[in-house]
Design brief:
single chain, about 180 residues, alpha+beta, eight-stranded mixed sheet, two-stranded antiparallel sheet, about 25% helix
Length: about 180
Amino acid sequence: MMKFKPNQTRTYDGEGFMKRAACLCFKNELEKEVLLVSRSGHPDQWIVPGGGMEPEEEPCGAAVREVFEEAGVKGKLGRLLGVFEDQGRKHRTYVYVLTVTEALEAWEDSVNIGRKREWFTVEEAIKVLQRDKPVHAEYLQRYQLSCLSNNGNVLLPSQPPNNNFPCYTAPSTNNVLGPSRS
């Protein structure tokens, strides 16, 4: 079943990229387990929850809204990990880190389209995403690079001043083939 949103207006930036927002949703502040959701129309494949920004919506607000709609979770929004470009689909996605504080039993997409959610270790999630949605695996790979380990504790980098965040371009999915899921 495909997701249908009546009266949804897609927003684009000045370069023609669709503006999107997403969150890496972690189970707690240790950031060892991340929540993935099943793809709409492909229930056996996993993705990072996120979607298109609405007109006049800030990226952080869109990220929180999309996570609530797609994964049925609320939480504490953390840092902006970065802005990622998917050149093939012409998407530019703001990706945030979110610590989950509440998970609904039933939520909009679970009821309307049967979407599932599941916790994965960061390493497991990268493997699953490399197979199912390689562009999303890049988010977690960038996350791993952004954290330094100090005796098992995660040290978070400080945010750069002035919202001038780096933009990351994900590799083309045309050249990335993973094992098919049976």
